[in-house]
Amino acid sequence: MDEAGGGLGGADRPSRPRVAIVVYGDLDSRSGGFLYDRRLANHLATHGWAVDEVSLPERPPPRSLLTNLAVGLVDRLERCDVVVEDAYCGPSLFLLNRRLDTPVVALVHYLRSAVVDEGIRGRVTRTIEREYLQSADAYVFNSEPTREAVVSLCGVGAGGSPGVDPGTSSPLDVVAPPAGDRLGEAPALSGDRLHDEPFRVVAVGNVTPRKGFDTLIRGLSRMDDGVEWRLCVVGDTSVDPDHVASLRTLASRQEITDDVRFVGRVTDDRLRAELRAAHVLAVPSRYEPFGIVYLEGMAFGLPAIASANGGASDFVGDHNGALVPPDDPGAVAAAIAPLARDRGRLERLSRGARKTFRDHPTWEETCARVRTLLERLLPAGRPVRAEPG
């Protein structure tokens, strides 16, 4: 039985190029990586490509490895001219890819190896991720730090790229960052919005340990007594209920229960309202592969208090926010408190945030970069893959 669901089917290739986009689950999921995959699929369809959306079952290891043996999946992918795989699916594809003659492009949003320990599980995770990345022919990275992490994990070919065209020795990779314009935009902070009290912090993301909301709560609790603040956490609280309970307990122990709200998963209209009501956006993640949410906040004039571990360093700095190390409440307090006390400084960073948003590539520009890479793979045949490391 073929484990992959959905798609176009049919044995004959169309006259227009056909691309398979391979993901876990549903492309309509609301996480940043799935948003990217959906935008790319829509862009390619608009530009004349036939798009086969291949949905794989997401299962915990070691069961996730079984998809490498799925009946019919190789044949289905071989009916396409190029295969784009969300690299998060790597455990389900690293063996299967070596049976494909169709060029494979790894779309790298997130590295599992970035969030595992040094024990046996971590070593296995890194080995499988390396094997998967080496099974691809070309790469799309959401940030330069993600690219550097892949190069460090897998090694490089000519030109410092993990993927190389054997005919020209030119790199077969592109850094194509996601855009942050999904929710629209608002002007930089000014007037009543700038000077409103209390100082309002918004945090957006699924409420899981990786997002570092415990670090944020601890940091806010350390701020001077003279700084009155409120925190609104917007994001799915059903993913890890035990963690949500621990955050509520933490707020209670810090005697700030009335200052911290968890509003759960909300509509886009409600999210826009929360962004318009806030002064800064803070998500001090333990690892954030890119951080679309930082850009979405900048679209509303919000300086970003962002994780220093991951892709945010590509666009967040002291001109539009602050990068903070993981698990460092003191750094969070040191980044936020001066903005609450000095609204002139907050205004300058708000203007910097708006400029960063305006200067950032749009979704159309980002997807066009990816399409250009895919077009390079159409006539050239399959490049030589790296041998397993």
What would you say this structure looks like, in words?
- This protein has 389 residues and is of the alpha/beta class.
- It folds into 2 domains: 18-179 and 363-377, Glycogen Phosphorylase B (Rossmann fold), CATH 3.40.50.2000; 191-359, 3-Layer(aba) Sandwich (Rossmann fold).
- Helix content is 35%, strand content 15%.
- α1 packs across α12, α6 crosses α10 (329-341) and α10 crosses α11.
- The longest helix has 17 residues, at 343-359.
- The radius of gyration is 22 Å and the shape is globular.
- The model is unreliable at 5-14 and 381-389 (pLDDT under 50).
Summarize the structure.
The chain is of the alpha/beta class and 389 residues long. 35% of the residues lie in helices and 15% in strands. Mean pLDDT is 90; it is low at 5-14 and 381-389.
The CATH architecture of the largest domain would be: 3-Layer(aba) Sandwich
Query: Helical amount among residues, as a percent range?
Result: 25-40%
How far do the termini sit from each other? 32 Å
Major pleated sheet: 6 strands, parallel
> Largest beta sheet: what is the strand line-up?
2-1-3-4-5-6
Shape type: globular
Low-confidence stretches: 5-14, 381-389
- In round numbers, the mean pLDDT is 90
CATH class category of the largest domain: Alpha Beta
Number of E-type strands: 12
Rg over alpha carbons? 22 Å
Q: How much strand content do the residues show? A: 15-25%
Order of helices and strands: EHEHEEHEHEHEHEHEHEHEEHHH
Tally of helical runs: 12
CATH superfamily (homologous) name of the largest domain? Glycogen Phosphorylase B
CATH topology of the largest domain, anyone?
Rossmann fold
Our count of domains comes out at 2
